[in-house]
Amino acid sequence: MTDTLYIHPETPQPRLIRQAVEVIRNGGLIAYPTDTTYALGCGIGEKKALEQLIRVRQLDKKHQFTLLCQDLSVLAVYAKVENPDYRLLKAHTPGPYTFILQGTTEVPRRLMDPKKRTIGIRVPDHPICQALLEEHGEPIMTSTCHLPGDEFPLTDPQDVRDFLQGQVDLVIDGGFCGVTETTVISLADGTGPDVIREGAGPVDSIF
Question: Which structural domains are found in the chain, ordered by start?
Answer without folding.
Answer: 3-206 (3.90.870.10)
